[in-house]
């Protein structure tokens, strides 16, 4: 193959990477710099120019879609089918190896793979066998624990003596789960990688065989690898060290699921003689957008460092909109999208990005009201999310005991011991007596037709619903829903789970309370507020999203946006505590990841970038006066056009020099002061606003989180 066929379409840095001599090479590929092109051209170079056998190449991606795209591009470059190439995901390639070496890894030839839900159900069965109460040992939390241990390469027997009771029980469950998997010939996703790593570590013959076979190892998105994936790469690269890693440390945004940006930062140390090629020319965005993104990410310290540039024109300045509240923010965004479409452009060229999935609700509401089609990319619409459906089911059965679908959905959520057999007995009696499931359940409890344990489980659910209805009689709608979420156990159920998804579910439930507090039911035709709200939720869920092929606005979280690009991007909710997320302000290292997330969001934009924040935002069921995100202050002011002057809606205190006048100090209380509340317990003063009888203080309580309280009535005691 002619060298020019491969190199002609590349810039200088891309050529340097593609035609590099053997040895470890790290390609620092900035956003929009053509990393997929470099990977595919590198494989084509090895096969077509260096005459390396396709059988000697191992290429790893993070998704099957990326693997298929890579294979297609390589075949296009080579102009013949690339047979023998091992291209796939970490799990896909590892599964292929396990199938070939099932004896060596002590698995039956017909071993099966557990998906996430299968794994969850098996853990539930293990808990039952160990006679552990799911209320105290939530299966999702244990699932997270087991997978986290496997991703660190840690087996149960490696813990040794354990003094901590909780950890002891977790390891006990882990051990019993492993035994159940081995007995049934099952492997979960984390196990697939772990078995391959253990095989290569223990068997020198296997290790040398695969290191000799795969003379060239290539990996995409190196910054997203966790500890086990990085070790996997090191084992395959072996002594020859021909590891070609492509990634961007500035786009490492998955630390919450185990990704380690340190893998990129330590590459040159871990692979002797490693070279570094920086790809900084961006083919996506305007010069203005790149200058702003560079300025923001330069505030991070732990990075290899690069500066994106482009041959594109300077482009329009970035628009900054300071909204009155989240509805004003949404209306502004939808207004600009309409202007874009009226100028002859498509809706699907626009993307609304947000840090928290709960933010989608207001955008969805305004889009529906404006009759603008949209899709929630990579996720469900707000009222279609599982946790919201659970909450609405509780509310529906509180409103009407004979709502059978709602009864079935939550009779065992959170887990209270109502199994399939008990539920089937309820169904059979309901059919026989032609009554609702609620009526049948009451009869089964009264007649004690089931075993005592099953009867008590059903009785506890019936009592819970009756008590929720009784306790919330006369409550305002928002207060009613908040009470049901708290006392049904639903909030605690999701708080006990681990990871970003669990936190997102809690935020969605809190957003449901916000939706209820500000729901307008005046036109509800004599319906009570709860029934009107439930009808509204059902109608919104029934609207349905636009089809994939429709021209529609794209809504997505910032994490979902990685790898995508749009002519016009709205980066919303840029407020302290929301973005950067409150959690990142409390955990070491998380703030830099939040800044990388902001950088990812900004570099999705090709032509126009809008940044928005609200002065007042309704969160967790109440209004919060917010501060603009620190990321806004990191964008050079000469790159920004303020759409309108800041409305100056609030000034928590008037600054006199550097001393706040009318601040908590004026009433004998300081920011950071520890206080105690009769109902909410201990907390820390985080913010303050207003004066005199209207003064309010924001306290972050250990047990219940952040709350705004009227200082005159809060009766806070200083600690």
What's the architecture of the largest domain, going by CATH? 3-Layer(aba) Sandwich
Number of discrete domains: 5
- What shape does the CA trace take? globular
- Would you identify the CATH H-level superfamily of the largest domain? P-loop containing nucleotide triphosphate hydrolases
Strand order of the largest sheet: 11-12-10-13-14-9-17
Helix amount: 40-55%
Which percent range describes the beta-strand content? Answer: 15-25%
> Unreliable runs, pLDDT <50, ≥5 residues?
647-662
Structural class by secondary-structure content: alpha/beta
User: Per CATH, what is the topology of the largest domain?
Assistant: Rossmann fold
Biggest sheet details? 7 strands, parallel
By DSSP (H or I, 4+ residues per run), the number of helices equals 29
Tell me the Rg in angstroms. 28 Å
Q: What's the CATH class of the largest domain, please?
A: Alpha Beta
N/C terminus separation: 77 Å
């Amino acid at each position: 193959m002619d060298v020019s066929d491969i190199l002609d379409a590349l810039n200088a840095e891309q050529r340097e990477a593609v035609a590099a001599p053997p040895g470890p090479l790290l390609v620092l590929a900035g956003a929009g710099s053509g990393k997929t092109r470099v990977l595919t051209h590198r494989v084509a170079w090895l096969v077509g120019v260096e005459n390396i056998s396709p059988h000697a190449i191992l290429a790893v991606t993070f998704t099957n879609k990326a693997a298929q795209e890579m294979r297609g591009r390589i075949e296009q470059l080579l102009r013949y089918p690339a047979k023998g190439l091992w291209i796939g995901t970490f799990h896909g390639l590892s599964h292929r190896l396990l199938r070939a070496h099932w004896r060596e890894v002590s698995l039956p030839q017909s071993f099966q793979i557990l998906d996430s839900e299968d794994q969850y159900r098996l853990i539930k069965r293990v808990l039952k066998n160990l006679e552990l109460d799911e209320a105290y040992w939530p299966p999702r939390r244990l699932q997270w624990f087991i997978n986290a241990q496997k991703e660190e390469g840690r087996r149960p027997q490696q813990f040794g003596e354990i003094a901590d009771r909780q950890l002891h029980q977790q390891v006990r469950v882990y051990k019993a789960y492993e035994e159940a998997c081995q007995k049934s010939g099952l492997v979960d996703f984390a196990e697939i990688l772990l078995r391959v790593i253990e095989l290569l570590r223990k068997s020198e013959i296997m290790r040398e065989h695969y290191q000799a076979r795969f003379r060239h190892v290539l990996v995409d998105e190196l910054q997203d690898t966790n500890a086990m994936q990085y070790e996997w790469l090191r084992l395959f690269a072996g002594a020859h060290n021909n590891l070609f890693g492509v990634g961007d440390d500035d786009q490492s945004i998955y630390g919450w699921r185990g990704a380690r940006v340190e893998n990129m930062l330590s590459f040159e140390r871990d692979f002797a003689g490693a070279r570094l090629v920086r790809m900084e020319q961006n083919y996506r965005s305007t010069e203005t957008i790149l200058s702003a993104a560079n300025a923001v990410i330069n505030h991070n310290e732990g990075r290899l460092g690069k500066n994106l540039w482009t041959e594109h024109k300077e482009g329009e300045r970035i628009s900054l909109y300071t909204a009155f509240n989240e509805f004003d923010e949404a209306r502004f965004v939808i207004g600009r999208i309409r202007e874009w479409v009226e100028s002859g452009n498509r809706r699907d060229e626009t993307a609304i990005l947000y840090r928290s999935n709960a933010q989608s609700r207001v955008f969805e509401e305004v889009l529906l009201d404006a009759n603008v089609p949209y899709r929630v990319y990579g996720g469900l619409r707000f009222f279609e999310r599982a946790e919201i459906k659970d909450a609405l089911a509780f509310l529906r059965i509180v409103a009407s005991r004979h709502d059978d679908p709602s009864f079935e959905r939550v009779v065992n959520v959170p887990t209270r011991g109502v199994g399939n057999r008990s539920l089937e007995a309820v169904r059979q009696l309901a059919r026989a007596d032609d009554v609702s499931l609620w009526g049948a359940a009451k009869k089964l409890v009264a007649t004690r037709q089931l075993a005592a344990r099953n009867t008590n489980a059903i009785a506890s659910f019936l009592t819970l619903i009756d008590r929720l209805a009784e306790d919330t009689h006369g409550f305002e709608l928002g207060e009613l829903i908040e009470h049901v979420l708290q006392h049904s156990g639903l909030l605690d159920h999701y708080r006990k789970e681990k990871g970003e998804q669990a936190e997102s579910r809690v935020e969605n439930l809190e957003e449901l309370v916000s939706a209820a507090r500000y729901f307008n039911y005046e036109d509800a035709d004599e319906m009570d507020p709860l029934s009107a709200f439930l009808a509204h939720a059902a109608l919104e869920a029934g609207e349905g999203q636009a089809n994939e092929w429709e021209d529609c606005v794209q809504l997505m979280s910032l994490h979902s946006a990685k790898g995508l690009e749009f002519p016009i991007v709205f980066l919303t909710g840029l407020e302290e505590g929301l973005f950067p997320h409150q959690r990142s302000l409390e955990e070491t290292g998380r703030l830099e990841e939040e800044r990388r997330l902001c950088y990812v969001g900004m570099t999705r934009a090709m032509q126009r970038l809008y940044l928005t924040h609200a002065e007042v935002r309704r969160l967790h069921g109440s209004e919060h006066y917010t501060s603009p995100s620190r990321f806004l202050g990191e964008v050079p002011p000469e790159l920004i056009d303020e759409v309108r002057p800041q409305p100056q809606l609030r000034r928590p205190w008037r600054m006199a020099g550097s001393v706040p006048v009318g601040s908590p100090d004026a009433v004998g209380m300081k920011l950071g002061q520890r206080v105690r509340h009769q109902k909410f317990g201990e907390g820390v003063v985080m913010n303050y606003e207003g004066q005199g009888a209207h003064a309010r203080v924001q306290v972050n309580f250990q047990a219940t989180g952040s709350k705004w309280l009227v200082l005159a009535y809060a009766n806070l005691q200083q600690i």
